[in-house]
Amino acid sequence: MVTQKTIGILGASGYTGAELVRLLLRHPRVDLKVLTADRRAGQSMGDVFPQLAPYDLPRLVAIDDIDWAGVGLDLVFCALPHATTQKVLKDLLAKAPATRVVDLSADFRLRDPAAYAKWYGHEHHALELQKEAVYGLVEMYRREIKAARLIANPGCYTTCAQLPLLPLLKAKAIETDGIVVDAKSGVTGAGRSAKEEMLFCEVSDGFHAYGVGGHRHMAELDQEFSKAAGREVVVSFTPHLVPMNRGILSTIYVRGRRGRTAEDLHAIVSERYAREPFVHVLPFGKTPQTRHVRGSNMTLIGVAADRIPGRAILVSTLDNLTKGASGQAVQNMNLVLGFPETMGIDQPPMFP
């Protein structure tokens, strides 16, 4: 008999929570035991998301009603707003220290408490947990993730930018100054809570930049790029909101170092990801589209030559709710619980 692991999802009524449920319903080794949604407590998942009505799922409960010591969860996904997460996980892990956690918020991604305070406007409330958190970009931290109790799932924009750039920075193949990340995201990246600027008439039939010069994901990019390069790296990053439901596409501009051509950069990235199940590098000169990854845990990367000698253009795309959030979180879960890494998240993209 195959042993199943008991799983909880905190914040199951949001987009990433629902995506976790969608993915885990087809996972053969998972028993979804706890689903929380404070404002929806007492309701079924089918009440909140009709597409999930046919499935036998636990009713939604409030976080404060959970007996962490008694419920005996093997792993918890935390899909709560930042700052809220710190307090909840501090209480959870104090009462159930053997429970593993994959946190989808930004609360544990930054290793430097001062950087967290600067970018999020308040001190961190769980510094001891922050010290033990492992950054959950699987392709770069697979070994560390396997042994971790608390995994900080990366941001969607940052995953899309890091996967093409980190191998090049580690190989010292590109100049560290002058990197430009021009990124576009679908509306689900803003979450499910009601916001005036997310109303249909505010978003549809238009396209705009936001967080210009000060988006919080910049801190995450600075941290990981600087670590990879072995020196301080600060890139130009501008996010844009596109009137589509899912997807992120990043167009990245770089300069080759010491005569490296765009073809050289393509070779480095291709070799780095040749054996990775969820990162695929297209033939040189080909670039991906968001529709090519929709609903999947896949990242597609393209490399093309710029018309300016010595420069290259990288194009990376992923589904912000899957590889950018919940799919990557399940990938992390598979690692820490000893399952095959692709289990439950190996579905191909939906097209059209």
Question: Which SSEs are present, and which pair or pack?
Answer:
Layout: E1 5-10, H1 15-24, E2 30-36, H2 45-48, E3 60-61, H3 68-71, E4 75-78, H4 84-95, E5 100-103, H5 113-120, H6 127-132, E6 134-135, H7 138-146, E7 150-152, H8 156-170, E8 180-185, H9 200-203, E9 208-209, H10 217-229, E10 236-241, E11 248-255, H11 262-272, E12 279-281, E13 299-305, E14 311-318, H12 322-336
Parallel strand pairs: 1-2, 1-4, 2-3, 4-5, 5-7, 6-7, 8-10, 12-13
Antiparallel strand pairs: 8-11, 9-10, 11-14, 13-14
Helix pairs in contact: 1-12, 7-12, 8-10, 8-11
Can you characterise this structure?
With 352 residues, the chain is of the alpha/beta class. The chain is 32% helix and 19% strand. The protein contains twelve helices and 14 strands. The chain has helices at residues 15-24, 45-48, 68-71, 84-95, 113-120, 127-132, 138-146, 156-170, 200-203, 217-229, 262-272, 322-336; strands spanning 5-10, 30-36, 60-61, 75-78, 100-103, 134-135, 150-152, 180-185, 208-209, 236-241, 248-255, 279-281, 299-305, 311-318. The strands form two sheets. The chain has a seven-stranded parallel sheet, with helices on one face. α1 (15-24) packs across α12 (322-336) and α8 (156-170) packs across α11 (262-272). The chain is globular, with a radius of gyration of 20 Å. It starts with a strand and ends in a 16-residue tail after the last helix. The mean pLDDT is 95.
